[in-house]
Automatic annotation (TrEMBL):
Sections of the chain in a coiled coil: none
A Gene Ontology term for the protein's cellular component: cytosol
UniProt cross-references to InterPro entries, sorted A to Z: MTH1187/YkoF-like, Thiamine_BP, UPF0045_domain
UniProt name for this protein: MTH1187 family thiamine-binding protein
Family affiliation: Belongs to the UPF0045 family.
Positions of the Thiamine-binding protein domain: 4-95
Length: 103
């Protein structure tokens, strides 16, 4: 299942803080059916079928415009594997618990 990282950056806001815009975007993501959303300090991670996730990304991108922002930059990274199942928990677990070479 694809894991998608989304960063929505409203440009030209009245304040330096953008947390209210990010909160709106996260509410869109966390309420989406068929999509798991995780908020991180710098992005929102989404997990689900691309048919379910991509409309959520579009809604997140559009959200700041509804709050009066004139410009939005959205960065999207899609991580998808076909050779084995992929999910956020498994990705983190493999980093924390897999044996790795020590230098």
């Amino acid at each position: 299942m694809p894991v998608v990282e989304v960063r929505v950056l409203p440009i030209g806001t009245d304040e330096a803080s953008i947390s209210s815009y990010i909160q709106d975007c996260f509410e869109i993501a966390s309420s989406a059916l068929g999509v798991e959303a995780v908020l991180t300090p710098t992005a929102t991670l989404l997990e689900g079928d691309l048919d379910d996730v991509l409309p959520v990304v579009e809604a997140m991108h559009q959200s700041p415009f509804y709050s009066g922002v004139d410009r939005v930059i959205t960065n999207v990274t899609i991580d998808e594997r076909l050779d084995k199942p992929l999910d956020m928990d498994g990705m983190v677990d493999s980093v924390l618990h897999d044996d790795v070479l020590t230098f």
